[in-house]
Structures are given as C-alpha cells and as structure tokens.
Amino acid sequence: MSPYVLLFNFFFVLSLLGAGHALLTRKQPNSALVWVTLCLSLPVVGVLAYIIFGVNRVRRSATRLREEFEQKNVMGHLKPPDHRAHTCMLRELPEEIVMLEKIGRAMTGTFPLKGNSIQPLFNGQLAYPAMLDAIKNARESVYLSTFLLNKDTVGKQFIQNLVAAHKRGVHVAVLIDGFGLLLSWRSVVRLLRRHGIPSTVFLPLSLLPPQIRLNLRNHRKLLAVDGKVGFTGGMNIGGTHDAKGHQRLSDIHYKLTGPIVSQLQQIFMEDWAFAKGKAHQPLPAPMDHTGEILARVIKDGPDNPDNPLHTSIIATISAAKHSVRIMTPYFLPSAELISALSIASLRDVAVTIILPAKSNWPFVQWASRNYFKGLLESGVRIFYQPQPFCHTKLLIVDDCYVQFGSANMDPRSLMLNFELNVEVLDMDLAQQLIAHVDDTVRRSQEITHREMISRPLPVRIRDAFFWLFSPYL
C-alpha cells in the first residue's frame, strides 16, 4: 500500500476519533458542531486544533489529585459539619435566607459556615494595606494565589513582605497562573524562588514541550494568613487597582475571618497540588467564630462537569422575590442566564445590571450590547457607570444574599476558568453593598430600549458580529 494512502487513512481515522470525542464530550451543541465540522473538513489542522484547544485534560488530572487527597487524608482533620446544629440554625433564619441556602447547598454539596466576619475593601487604597499588614503580622503561614502579580510598585511591596515573612520562618507559598504570568513579568517567580520562597505556575504555557492552553486558566484570587484571616474578591496584585486616576480600575476585595478561611486554604492546597502534581502540607484547624455571618465558598472550574457557579447564579436569580442587583465588568450571559433574568423581571422582581461605560476590551462590550434589547424588553434595567473602569463582580438578591469573587458574567469565567466566589447569607453585609450599588446607579447612565434599536446599521452589524464569538471571548 502506498505511504500516501496510509497517511490519508491515518488522518481520516484521526479526524473521525476527534469528531467522535467532541460529539460525546462537548456540553453545548453549537460547540460540538464547530469542532465536529472542523475535524471532518480539515483532518490535519482541525484535529490538531481540537487536541490543543478543545480537549479538557484538566478534569482527568484534577480527579486523580482529588483521589490522592482522600487517600492521604490531607483534609481529614477538618471537622465535618454538625447536621443537627445546622438544621437548628436554619430554623432561626428568615424564610428567604433558608430557601437561598438550600440552593447553594444543592449546587456545592457543602453546608455554609457560621461565625464569620466579612469586610468590603474598596479599591487598592484599602485592600492592599490590609493584605500587606496581614503578611507583616504572619506567624505561621502565608498562602497567596493570584492571576496577576505585576512587578510594579504595588507588586514589589508584596514581594518584599513575602520575602520578609519567609526570613522570619513563616511558611510562604505563592501560586501564579501561567497565562497571567505572561501578562506580567516571568521574573516574578524566579525572584521569589531566588529568595527560597516555594512558588509555582498554574498550567504554564510553553512551546517545548507544547503546552498552549489559552483557556482553563486559574482566575482565583486569594490570600490566607495563619489560618485566621483571608482575602478574596476580584483584585489582582498591581497598581491598576489603586484607582487614583480615571484610567485605573475600580474594584472590591474582601477581608474574611472565621471558619470560612479554612475553605480558602483548602482551595489553595488543591490548586497547589494540581500545579505541582503532589499534595501540600496539612491545613491548620479552622479558627473560632469572629462574627455572625453565614458564608460558604463556591469553587468552579473545568474539572467540575456540573458548573456549580453558573447553576447557582441562575437558580438564585430564579428564586428571587424582590430584587436582583448585578455588577460585572464583562457581561456575556448564557441563554439560561438571560432566561432567568428576563423571567425574574416579568415576575416583578427589580433586576438591575451595572456595567462599565467604557470596557478595557472593546470587542467584549460590543458583543455584550447585542444582548440588551431582549433584556430591556422584559423590564431589566441596565446602567453604564462612568470611569474609572469598574472590575467589581457582585450579585445581590433580595436584600439578604450576596455573592462575590473572581468570576465575571461570561462563558470564560463560568465555563472555562478556575474561579472562586463566596456566597454570603447576611442582611447587614447585603445592605452595606446595596448602598454602594444604589449610589453607583445614581451616578450612572441608564440604557434605554430606544437607544438600542436606534443604533446605526454599521454599529448593529459590528455588535452582532462580535456577539457570534461570545463563547470564546
């Protein structure tokens, strides 16, 4: 048989295998159709593209490491929740909080932890000094995970304090995403390692051996110190979050104390084990109660086929009785999320969405505008807030439910990235953040239905064109 025939047969079989794999594993029919068509029409290029960009090799590795955790009982010393005490606690809560708690429990399989304190920190002026102060006062451990660690003035302050803590005998570990590392400075990891600080890169990008995963990024941001204080939210580490000028970012980070910190540490350990291929040292025991807030962490990523974050957001909005407030920098909603928002508004729930007037990614903003018309027709109110660019990710439901963290309202966050949100069931924190959101609405420009339908034809074509690529933006 001719070598050309053998080569043709090889690629033909490979294209069938690629198309079959996409058909059986892709969650969305449009995604499956794209990959099947690409594999069959371009047997060489299509299959290679599918192997590099379409195959989720993360889930298999994460499952193996989760089994390793269970075998080594790394988390075994964490006390399981007292179901009877939890049931008694729920009886003391308002009915709407109990209903929303059940949704989160069904999505995550975990009980919320009572006894926490959570403090919003607005922008880098409040967040960074609090984080640096926690590192300066660390006595046992500092665990930092971030998408970006810039080597600017702010980044250097963090590096100096991490090095100082390491020299005091504190166990310091730093995890940085591989793609985020390319967006900042590779020398950051080398610098930390030069000082003896354990540092690793999450899914590093390289050409040899080929590891080019533009998706499946670790977008989580967390800092856990001594098992006593934690920080999480939407902020990376860099001067862009100082918000001192109109070109800066505006964001909210959160300081957490109480048992919830143990969940942040556990997620760090799991991510560290995934990046290093081995488990880290055991966690300290959860700390005592520091407040009355009921909270739990919702983690999500390509290693979880159930998409608990996306599903919990839709279910919570669907259960809303009075109001839904959303603040997000990127808004590319799924069909399910659009339905939940529209139906909630048609049920006379006040649905408010706040977006930046000017995005740092224009094509994302153009695609986003193509969703507005249908939402506005159902009664959803949409606002553009003025500069600086707001990077805040926040969901508030019925004056008692808050969800904040690293996830944007787009497919990349809710389907592809490793994300971390915190679900809070507390009226006081909700009221504090509602005041911030409502003040922002008063300073923002409302988008009208007439404005959407009166866009010039070239603008509508541009918006619709980029909307086609929403799942990949």
TrEMBL record:
Alphabetized CDD domains for the sequence? PLDc_CLS_unchar2_1, PLDc_CLS_unchar2_2
Q: What class of enzyme is it?
A: transferase
- Coiled coil location: none
- What is its membrane topology? Multi-pass membrane protein
What's a Gene Ontology MF term here? cardiolipin synthase activity
- Pfam families cross-referenced by the UniProt entry: PLDc_2, PLDc_N
- List UniProt keywords, sorted A-Z: Cell membrane, Lipid biosynthesis, Lipid metabolism, Membrane, Phospholipid biosynthesis, Phospholipid metabolism, Repeat, Transferase, Transmembrane, Transmembrane helix
Q: List the transmembrane segments.
A: 32-55
**Cellular compartments per GO CC:** plasma membrane
In this chain the PLD phosphodiesterase domain maps to: 214-241, 391-413
Location comes to: Cell membrane
Query: Which GO biological process entries does UniProt record here?
Result: cardiolipin biosynthetic process
EC number annotated for this UniProt entry? 2.7.8.-
Please give the PANTHER family that the UniProt record associates with this protein.
CARDIOLIPIN SYNTHASE (PTHR21248), PHOSPHOLIPASE D (PTHR21248:SF22)
Q: What protein name is recorded for this chain?
A: Cardiolipin synthase
| Species of origin | Halodesulfovibrio aestuarii
Question: Quick one: which gene encodes this?
Answer: cls
